[in-house]
Amino acid sequence: ASLAYRSVAAFQGLFNEPSLVPALQASFLLPVFAQLLAGSTAMLLLLKEKDERELRIAYNKYDLLFRSTPAAVFLSEPATGVIHEANPRCTELTGYTPEELIGHSFSEFGLWAPGEHERAENAYCSQGNLQNFEIEAYNRMGQNRVWEVSSAKAPQDDHMFISSSIQDITKRKELQARVNQLLHEKDVLLSEVHHRVRNNLSQIISLLSLQARIAGDQTAERVLSNAGTRVQSMLALYDRIYTERIYTAVSAPDFFSRLIELLRSVFPDTSKSIKVELDIHELSIDPTIMSPLGQLINELFTNSMKHAFGNQNEGTIRIALHQEGDSLLLQYSDDGCGFSPEPADETGKSFGYILIEALAQQLEAEWQLEGPPGTRYSFRFKHVL
Known about the structure:
- Strand 1 and strand 2 form a beta hairpin.
- The chain is built from 11 helices and 12 strands.
- The protein has helices at about 1-15, 20-70, 90-95, 100, 105-110, 115-125, 170-215, 220-245, 250-265, 285-310, 350-360, and strands at about 70-75, 85, 130-140, 145-155, 160-170, 250, 275-280, 285, 315-325, 325-335, 365-370, 375-380.
- Helix content is about 55%, strand content about 20%.
């Protein structure tokens, strides 16, 4: 310790000698400064290398995204449309390579259909961008194409560019046109089928009516007349379903109210004094269920109007349709005289009864008939909504 102390004191003594200070300072401080400078330079080089590596990674990501995106991407001048950048997808879109397009505009290559450049430019100026904007264009081979363009401003340093993403949707438009054509042909076909079915039903009604008038027998006349009325009611139901294009779920309240309105029009004289009460829950029913259900109401209502009330000046028909779990409960009743007096077959069943039984079987319904007094039907069948 004593030796170290004497050494430090001697070293300080040297610094106290004026003639030795410059030499000592130079020999001692310059290496220290050199080491500090070298260390700082190395640190700066490491930081610069790190920044360059991160910049290179970011550029590679951008370049990969720019080149691999499925849409053709362009960077162009707002005023002139001159292209500054284009990715490889532009070759599939236009037929020109990026090198051929850069430095030129679409107009120079005649890629725009007449008037389309002005239309796109006006839309861009009014909206400030383009979103899925469809234009007519041409490729290098002169083929008509449809492009979907999305464009937006792309500022870069002190310069403004427009970045555009373009996809060729020609095949999609062709498929849409084909689908629209098929839909039109379907509508024409359905209209023709409806027209022919309606004409056939009308002819059947006319033939039954004519045959009833010349039957010469009251029983035959009544049977033929009843058959004509049933067909006429079916025609009204058919018009409701197909004329108004009810192909999916049917609103039960709307359907029943319109159906009763149509059925009442078949009996303009009798129905004036008959009150109809509807209690239909807000349900949506599949047309495959609604069709036999409508025919069932048609038959029940027709029976009531023709047989239940006789010479009564008033009467009431009640129709209710409720959902109970995964089942529907249809209840129909009138306060008339009771069962239909129609002629029965060898089993004792009238034609109307057989028809109701067949429709209930088509609905896979459990059903009951009660009365007199009056007539009360209930039908329960499954229908998961």
